[in-house]
Predict the structure.
Amino acid sequence: MGKKHSLWYVILIAAAAGMAGLLYGFDTAVISGAIGYLQELYDLSPAMEGWVISCVMIGGVIGVALSGFLSDKFGRKNILMVSAIFFIISALGSALAVDVTTLVLARILGGFGIGFASALSVTYISECAPPAIRGRLGSMYQLFTILGICATFYINYGVANSGTYEWGLEIGWRWMLGYGTIPGIIFLVLLFFIPESPRYLIQKGKDQEAYDILKRINGEEIAKREEKDIKASIKVEQSSSAKELLKPGLRMAMGVGVFLALFNQVIGMNAVTYYGPDIFRSVGFENNTEFLATSIIGSVQVIFTVIAILLIDKLGRKKLMAIGSSLMAIFMLLIGSVFYFSPANAGILLIIMIAGFTASFCISMGPIPWIMIPEIFPNHLRAKAVGIATIFLWGANWAIGQFTPVLINNMGSAFTFWMFAVINVICFIFVMTIVPETKNKSLEEIGEIWNSKAAKKKEKTYGKMA
């Protein structure tokens, strides 16, 4: 009987975390289907088009920044419930929007929800899941995010094919945005059946309740050990400060974490995700084939994210990021060249190039920063460090959403994609020269890497002064 309860608890935890990723994936992708209609309906300038897409990230940044404080005060589960409610209201508000201002306000509210969920879902998994499968459950968030993106591309394609273009202009985009209520409601319902985080309960002095949950998840022997470890970790955390991240070794780790978060966003994948149909439309795709082409790219994302999960622990983080960033630079160079030399005849060639770029992203800079950033910090500082890196990630996400249409309008598509090629070259150099390999290394061994680098830098500096 104990095993049965344990299995169901783990499934619920994985499903709840997965739905949080699905919400993020849905919101990332759904606007790409609606924005073409919105641009024509409201005669949006490139800057305003970027604002309609990127405004959700404003709410996201604030949501991420507040999530730690609010979840420590009110509980992980309660704040995740708030995030689900925000997302449902946002989807309904977006679908019923009477003007651009209403739509933007609804999307900012959804951003709060996604910010809370993206920050807390993986934290919740790490605090609840059995140690033996914690890493795999953590990667489920990224996989469900990609599944959400892919499914939403197909929803957009289905809605676009459900009526005439005029119907899409008046009603269709509302259905696209309104479908977000479905994953939001499923997420909210699932949350009623999952336990509160044992770590939060111990922080609040509810030791017996926490132990009962740990026992139900892990069995008695592991539960005792987990409870002891959580109490020790909380004690260390309470005596620590974010200022520790400014110490020589940890300062370098924080720098790597921030740049991994930035490169996850600024190397061009989100430009394709947000503006895929527009990009394909600009080279002659029409009659909703632009939505089909984007859906194909979404399927490539799913396939290669699964491949990445299988390869990460075999090939290593650094090697995959180096391979991926170099391939992405080549594909972005080729995509820019297609737009420069023969945009009118791009067709299938452009799908192949973007699919190649997407596959390269999904085996490297897509999932690996989410896995590696928590790995490079000690337990007592991990939550603070990941929170800081995530704020940078959301900020970069906003910049890509906001400025991509402006860049394409002012510089042209070719030079915009060549700019992304250069960013990928910089990413490759960063990975090869600064990022350490963390595969099969304990947290203590990773800590020694930073201490060693800091010592060498100090020695070099004093050597020059001498």
Q: What stands out?
A: Residues 2-42 form the longest helix (41 residues).
